[in-house]
Amino acid sequence: MSMLRPKLVLDHVSEITPSLLAEHGLGGLLLDLDNTLIEYGSYQEAREVQAWAAELMLGGVKLYLLSNALPERVRFWTARLGFSGVGLASKPAPRAFRVAARQMGLAPAQVAMVGDQLFTDVLGGNLAGMYTIMVRPLADNALPHTRLARRVERLVLKRYGLQPWSKT
Ligand SMILES: [Mg+2]
Q1: What is the pLDDT of residues 86-110, one digit of tens each?
Q2: Partner of 116 for a Cys bridge, out of 1, 50, 137, 138, CB 3.0 to 4.6 A?
């Protein structure tokens, strides 16, 4: 069960700062796309997230997008965000996580996986030997299996003594 435990639970990616990363010996972030950086399925401008990413990169932090979404969609967002990434990543399988760390020129232990889902982002990041940060999902699609997963995620967080968000 401990493979499902995020090291840190935050409300929003913008709470991640260069000093927070330095504190944990981290040089890069592996970022989930949907419901982590932008609302699920969105193609709309995301100025706050773009500014946050630009500032981190200026601070020497390496960023890489790791998504299970289609490559076309991932390419749209990497072009807009100004860093590389990959789609159809088959998260939580740890292979793509390790390949991404190599692309970033970092060891897995120097990378934090940041995402809104325990069973893909956090599990895969932990399996790959990375630091893991769970963020509050930006907007949920109403698919029944997603709602069920959210309920289970909350139970797991509580079991670990981590504070789940009151509402997602
Ligand atoms: Mg997501």
Answers
A1: 999 999 999 999 999 999 999 999 9
A2: 137
In whole angstroms, what is the distance from residue 10 CA to residue 165 CA?
Answer: 9
Q: Quick check: is 150 in a domain?
A: yes
- Residue 143 has a CB neighbour count (10 Å cut-off) of 10
Compute the distance from residue 115 Cα to the ligand 1 centre, in Å: 6
Maximum mean pLDDT: which of 71-75, 156-160, 163-167: 71-75
Q: For the chain, how many structural domains are there in total?
A: 1
Q: How far is the CA of 106 from the centre of ligand 1 (A)?
A: 23
The pTM for the full model equals 0.93
Give me ligand 1 centre to Cα 134, in Å.
10
Q: Ligand 1 centroid to 28 CA: how many Å?
A: 18
- Which domain covers residue 77, as residue numbers? 2-159
With beta carbons less than 8 A apart as the criterion, state whether 51 and 25 touch. no
